[in-house]
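Checklist before submission:
- one chain only
- standard amino acids only
- sequence pasted in full

Submission:
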Amino acid sequence: MTKRVKWGVLGAANIAVKKVIPAMQHGEWCEVIALASRELEKAQRFARELRIPTAYGSYDELLSDPDIEAIYNPLPNHLHVPWSIKAAEAGKHVLCEKPVALNTREAILLQEARDRTGVRIEEAFMVRTHPQWLKVLKLIAADRIGQVRSVMGHFSYHNTDPQNIRNVAEIGGGGLMDIGCYLIYFARLVFREEPRRVVGLIDEDPATRTDVLTSALLDFPGGQAVMTCSTRMTPFQRVQILGTRGRIEVQIPVNAPPDQSTRILIDDGSDLFGAGAEIVHFELCDQYTIQGDLFARSILEDTDPAVSLTESIRNIAVIEAIFRSTRSGLWEVPATFDY
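Returned file contents:
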């Protein structure tokens, strides 16, 4: 029988109780044994519903549980680093929701905690190990569309609730931190390099002071990436990757459903309607199950996680540069660090 890593979950965020925990419970390498909330009754309710054996009324109690080996941290953005560091100092490995930190300074503190404690810490970019993105990277490496010159991404949803954490500026709300981070990550992943400079444009809600419509242009040595994200538009997501001999379209690049087949299109451009495009379908899978199992295996087999903290810091550096650009009105250069 496969040895399973024993997990504890900090909080009862929607993404945790509706998506990640059920998915991990279907994995071969994960066993969720505890859930904590600041309200014991809430923790007990979700523990019963999700068949989790132990509920705690505080995060500290969960971190003190000697049986827990790894922590999943889906807390609001401003609590990612403080509680991930506490978990690391308690000897727990950490899978933390994106964005892993509010800024590069915080992210470096997290990296230092990882190095000091010897645990593994990974940002939960579940897209990185979904079969559709593994296929995209394989096609690009095989020169299927020639040299990549442009990446165009869009991600939007509509949420006007002022109480929703995505609309609270003080805790790291806003579209760029919530969903724009994916579009930046995809561009960096495809080009396999860092942008030399970026320029951004933000429409900010005066009531919430969060960015509700953000666009950015990223200048890479090998080409350019254009991205738009919004928290006040119709739900939509798409990534187009254009090369010198073809293009790849990823139709649901982030929220790939676990109960429906996803697909990508590979088009050589011979017909502007895309009539000759090859459609690649993928078998049903849950990217959160894959993410949890791969992180658990990295613990058990003493290997590196799928997404390194170095990659996460670089992604946040681009986000910071876009924010700076929207204030300065100029091109900004993402910060670089010695890791």
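Reviewer check: The chain has a mean pLDDT of 97.
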